[in-house]
Specification:
Order of helices and strands: EHEHHEEHEHEEHEHHHHH
Largest sheet: 8 strands, mixed
Distance between the termini: 53 Å
CATH architecture of the largest domain: 3-Layer(aba) Sandwich
Strand content: 5-15%
Bound molecules: nicotinamide-adenine-dinucleotide
CATH topology of the largest domain: Rossmann fold
Structural class: alpha/beta
């Protein structure tokens, strides 16, 4: 049986902020660690706003919203998560940064604590190896816990076992995901896991269709929405995810699966080079700088 009262979340960006909020709303104490003071304040303000909206829409009582907010400690120093019972890391998608963090966690955390990463593409086995080098036996406590964006809305958690991950770590992570109100689904540690292995080549193919003049971007999206029942067209989704992230994941697939058919479409690479990254830069496939018609 899992005995988790306090969850440590590392990184208070889009994903870490969402994970912390979901945990606190499900009655866990949270220590949210973010290196940037600015981002930490932004995240706290965002939590207040989101909880306020839940109260306004009568989906939550004011007292419960206040209690959820009180359960989150916003901190900058990593060692303040030392006493947590479970850790979810959600910092930038960099293998080196994540391996350093997991080496630190392996040395610092109690031996029974599960160390989960929210990576969308980096090998769990490699992250676990860095933990194992830092502290013998820590590798088996490392696992992928892949939440989806926006975390409070999306039900899925892809649970990814590295080569070293123990059964106890896997079952503990599945149990925690359920306690957070999510639906955990297991996958193995191959490039892109399941979600990005299947989704990203489809998005990449939509860029090829555009580049080859098969149809205009809006028409590609409309065809996929109306014909395949997609809630959002693949090119609109690419803008939402971030075109740089899409390119990065295609590179991970091409390298990890050693197959050039996963290389990012030249048009996708060109847009990224031009700084057209999608929603976050105001323009990607589509232009978000003009008021919606
Ligand atoms: P983000 O850039 O919004 O947030 C990352 C945060 O981590 C930043 O605020 C940064 O300051 C902080 N950070 C970096 N190094 C740190 C450190 N050493 N200690 C504490 N904080 C640190 O990124 P995001 O979109 O939230 O993604 C985070 C992770 O989740 C990535 O691994 C990403 O691949 C994964 N992911 C993202 C999505 C998505 O749709 N954005 C979906 C699933 C998984």
């Amino acid at each position: 049986m899992l005995n988790v009262k306090t969850i440590g979340v590392i990184g208070a960006g889009q994903m870490g902020g969402g994970i912390a909020l979901v945990a606190a709303s499900n009655k866990f104490n949270v220590v949210l660690c973010e290196k940037s003071a600015d981002q930490l304040h932004k995240c706290e303000a965002d939590h207040k706003k989101r909880l306020g909206r839940e109260v306004e829409k009568q989906r939550m009582q004011q007292a419960d919203a206040d209690a959820a907010l009180k359960r989150i400690k916003y901190v900058q120093a990593m060692d303040l998560i030392r006493d947590c019972d479970f850790v979810v890391e959600a910092v930038v998608e960099s293998s080196q940064v994540k391996r350093d963090i997991f080496a630190g966690l392996a040395r610092m955390m109690r031996e029974e604590v599960i160390l989960a990463t929210n990576t969308s593409s980096i090998s769990i086995t490699e992250i676990a190896a860095a933990a194992e080098v830092a502290h013998k036996g820590a590798g088996q406590r490392v696992i992928g816990m892949h939440f989806f964006n926006p975390v409070p809305v999306m039900k899925l958690v892809e649970v990814i076992k590295g080569l070293q991950t123990s059964e106890a770590t896997t079952s503990g992570t599945i149990e925690l995901a359920k306690l957070l109100g999510k639906t955990p689904v297991p996958a193995n540690d191959r490039a892109g896991f399941v979600s990005n292995r299947v989704l990203m080549p489809l998005i990449n193919e939509a860029f090829y269709a555009w580049m080859e003049g098969v149809a205009e971007p809006a028409h590609i999206d409309e065809i996929m929405k109306l014909g395949c029942n997609f809630p959002m067209g693949p090119l609109r989704l690419a803008d939402f995810i971030g075109l740089d992230t899409c390119e990065h994941i295609m590179n991970v697939l091409a390298d990890g699966l050693n197959n050039d058919r996963y290389r990012a479409c030249p048009l996708l690479r060109q847009l990224v080079a031009a700084g057209r990254l999608g929603d976050k830069s105001g323009r990607g496939v589509f232009d978000y700088t003009q008021p919606a018609k």
